[in-house]
């Protein structure tokens, strides 16, 4: 495993001690491949310990994959891997930095939603930092496709800064190919429909998933809700329908000030348009995550660089972006011209 020579090896006994024998009282949550516990190492560090499920016949593969990928990466918006047990250990354990403030999903529509802590500025910052992390992944060599971008995998610290985690499904992506053919994996509600139907994974698959995250941030609705009507169980479909029908008022979380604050209304409308582009069924019509990040930066600045964005990023399609306050849901019907579907290889 390239890079794993720098990964610290913990003993099973040390991690069992750190988590009080994997006490249920220490559980932070369950992931797709294991249970995560809060622990305290002998050197005093507070950590999160992922204990892979014993009955998962792919656990060794997921373990090796996550160690291999995370040992290559270092970014302020990615969860840091502190170490692991050996791959031959009877228990496969991964040790990460502890991120104290729960997940974005917890705060949007989970057990912490009652706190109403995610104001619009914080949500926009979460979107930008998540896009920044994904842009880094897509730009490293070889590029990394996360393949499970969702609000449950976006952790928050006490200042609401982002740490993207859970790389069990991630894939190293050759920079000289347009896609990788692989069996579709991911979380329902977030999986790129092209990937699901054609088994073709690209960097635009992460962009689609990020589009769902953007809609969650503006709506506070979960990605999948069986109580919604059949064609709107998936939040992506619900959002596309409402934006096309100019019903953004019904989609946006009313607590954000969409009705009462013109500036917030304008910014949320811009983010909704960006999400619409990310969720296009034709992946060639989706922007790259780098383009998404640039657009979010302009939105955060108040859209005053709208003309610059139009000239520099969207010169091939002058109908997509209108300047400043003239940006309306109608414009998302037009095509985002993207120069390539291959991963970006430079920051």
TrEMBL record:
Entry-linked SMART domains: S_TKc
Protein kinase domain ranges (all copies): 22-299
Protein's UniProt keywords contain Cell wall biogenesis/degradation: no
Pfam families, per database record: Pkinase (PF00069)
Gene3D superfamilies registered for this protein in UniProt: Phosphorylase Kinase, domain 1, Transferase(Phosphotransferase) domain 1
Keywords: ATP-binding, Glycoprotein, Kinase, Membrane, Nucleotide-binding, Serine/threonine-protein kinase, Signal, Transferase, Transmembrane, Transmembrane helix
Molecular function (Gene Ontology), one example: protein serine/threonine kinase activity
Membrane topology field: Single-pass membrane protein
SUPFAM superfamilies cross-referenced by the UniProt entry: Protein kinase-like (PK-like)
One GO CC annotation: plasma membrane
Places the protein is found: Membrane
UniProt binding sites for ATP: 50
PANTHER family recorded: LEAF RUST 10 DISEASE-RESISTANCE LOCUS RECEPTOR-LIKE PROTEIN KINASE-LIKE 1.4
Protein family membership: Belongs to the protein kinase superfamily.
UniProt protein name: Protein kinase domain-containing protein
């Amino acid at each position: 495993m390239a890079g794993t020579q720098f990964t610290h090896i913990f003993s099973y006994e040390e991690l069992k001690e750190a988590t009080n024998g994997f006490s249920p009282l220490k559980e932070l949550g369950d992931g797709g491949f294991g249970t995560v516990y809060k622990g305290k190492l002998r050197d005093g560090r507070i950590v999160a310990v992922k204990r892979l499920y014993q009955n998962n016949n792919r656990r060794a593969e997921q373990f090796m994959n996550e160690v291999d990928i995370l040992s290559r990466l270092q970014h302020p918006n990615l969860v840091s891997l502190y170490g692991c047990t050996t791959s031959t250990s009877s228990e496969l354990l991964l040790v990460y930095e502890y991120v104290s403030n729960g997940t974005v999903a917890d705060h949007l529509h989970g057990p912490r939603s009652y706190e109403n802590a995610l104001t619009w500025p914080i949500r926009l910052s979460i979107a930008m930092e998540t896009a920044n992390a994904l842009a880094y992944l897509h730009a490293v060599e070889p590029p990394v496709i996360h393949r499970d971008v969702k609000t449950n995998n976006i952790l928050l610290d006490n200042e609401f800064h982002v740490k993207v985690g859970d790389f069990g499904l991630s894939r190293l992506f050759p920079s000289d190919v347009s896609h990788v053919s692989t069996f579709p994996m991911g979380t329902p509600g977030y999986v790129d429909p092209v990937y699901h139907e054609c088994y073709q994974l690209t960097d635009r698959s992460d962009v689609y998933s990020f589009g769902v995250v953007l809609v969650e941030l503006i709506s506070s609705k979960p990605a999948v809700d069986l109580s919604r009507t059949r064609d709107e169980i998936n939040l992506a479909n619900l959002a596309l329908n409402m934006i096309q029908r100019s019903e953004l008022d019904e989609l946006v979380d009313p607590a954000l000030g969409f009705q009462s604050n013109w500036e917030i209304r304008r910014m949320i409308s811009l983010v909704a348009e960006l999400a619409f582009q990310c969720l296009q069924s034709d992946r060639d019509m989706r922007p790259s995550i780098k383009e998404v990040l640039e657009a979010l930066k302009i939105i955060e600045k108040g859209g005053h660089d709208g003309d610059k964005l139009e000239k520099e990023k969207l010169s091939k399609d002058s109908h997509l972006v209108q300047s400043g306050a003239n940006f309306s849901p109608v414009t998302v019907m037009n095509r985002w011209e993207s120069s390539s579907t291959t991963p970006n290889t430079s920051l």
